[in-house]
Amino acid sequence: MFQITRRSAKLFSTNLNALRKYADNVSTLKGGENILYSSLQKKFPQAKEIKIKDISGGCGAIFEVFISTTEFKGMSMVKQHQLINEVLKDEIKSMHGIRIHTEIPVENNK
User: Fold this and answer.
1) Which of helix, strand or coil describes residue 100?
2) How far apart are CA 51 and CA 109, in angstroms?
3) Which candidate among 4, 76, 96, 102 keeps its CA 20 to 30 Å from the CA of 33?
């Protein structure tokens, strides 16, 4: 029999809330999309938008990646794409292809 203490209940509640927050962010993503999203979110915590789409018909062979972040400021498009490739290098090994789109969001100076 398990004994639930206040400490274990609080720990469970904290972990459950973190899991819910994560699930809300990726609720529409499937297996491989989820993995790519998580890797990019870790590398680019300031990203305004990250979109991952399996464009292979669901088999996970080809993905389209879009990321919008100010962290690309001052980088050429080639450098931005190289950075994405570096972050996803392990995942890319099992893919047939990847399309990468990047942008630097416009900042509103009001």
Assistant:
1) strand
2) 26
3) 76
